């Protein structure tokens, strides 16, 4: 059997290559945009940071889509399904390798933000000092603690949402593939449509819960009690629970119903 680490290396390398291409295109786009701003005479101190932040949105979307595409290909590829590893290990490592790819992309974006903020560093330092003095006021004594807790909670919530999205995409994909084994084309389209509707309704339900949690946190930011702070962590656990259930279903489909097609 292939070890967890060897399988992780095998699945992570192509995803990091994808991320390197995305980052390279991102850097080229930033440089070309800055050159254009210089040509127009519109370049200001905060322009590099603003441009870099705006492109980061597109980087995140493209990275997520390409990671999802690569992950789903692995489940139906002979080259990967014939690796001597259990379906549970393949599913887990595939999910982890996609997460590593996204983290790598996130780190590169942070590095680009820091570089782009260098011309803006003096103003940024002044704003930070002003915020620091503001947070040290007696009536804002819980601000720093709340900021740390909410920041950590937001990061964990974002991770949980990303994992849930990937798990849902995989479940839809594998369910669709399993249906093709014994349904005619007309029935396949109908059941896929029903499946999409169910998933969309489930996502709207989960999103409404998350939105309520976040609103509760932001509306009581300076006067949080333990229950209010914990709500965002409860939402994370809630999402991870959904992710675990969907993962169990995907692994079952991999073991019993899904065949390779390439």
From TrEMBL:
Chain ranges passing through the membrane: 21-39, 51-69, 90-121, 147-169, 190-210, 230-254
Parts forming coiled coils: none
Keyword Transmembrane: yes
Annotated keywords: Membrane, Transmembrane, Transmembrane helix
Domain of life: Bacteria
Name the record gives this protein: Putative ABC transporter permease
């Amino acid at each position: 059997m292939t070890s967890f680490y060897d399988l992780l290396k095998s699945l992570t390398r192509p995803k990091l290559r994808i991320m390197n291409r995305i980052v390279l295109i991102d850097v080229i786009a930033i440089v070309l945009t800055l050159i254009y701003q210089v040509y127009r005479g519109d370049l200001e101190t905060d322009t590099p940071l603003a441009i870099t932040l705006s492109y980061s949105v597109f980087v995140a979307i493209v990275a997520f889509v390409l990671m999802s595409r690569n992950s789903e290909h692995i489940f139906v590829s002979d080259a990967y399904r014939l690796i001597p590893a259990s379906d549970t290990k393949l599913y887990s490592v595939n999910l982890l390798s996609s997460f590593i790819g996204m983290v790598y992309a996130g780190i590169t974006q942070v590095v680009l933000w820091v570089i782009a903020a260098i011309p803006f560093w003096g103003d940024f330092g002044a704003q930070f000092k002003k915020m620091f003095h503001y947070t040290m006021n007696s009536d804002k004594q819980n601000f720093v603690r709340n900021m740390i807790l909410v920041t950590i909670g937001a990061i964990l919530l974002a991770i949980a949402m990303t994992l849930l999205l990937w798990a849902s995409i995989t479940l839809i994909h594998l369910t669709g593939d399993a249906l093709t084994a014994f349904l005619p084309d007309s029935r396949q389209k109908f059941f896929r449509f029903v499946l999409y509707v169910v998933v969309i309704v489930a996502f709207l339900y989960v999103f409404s819960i998350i939105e309520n949690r976040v609103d509760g946190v932001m509306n009581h930011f300076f006067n949080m009690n333990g229950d209010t702070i914990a709500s965002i962590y409860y939402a994370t656990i809630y999402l991870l629970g959904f992710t675990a259930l969907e993962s169990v279903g995907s692994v079952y489909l991999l073991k019993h119903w899904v065949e390779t097609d390439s």
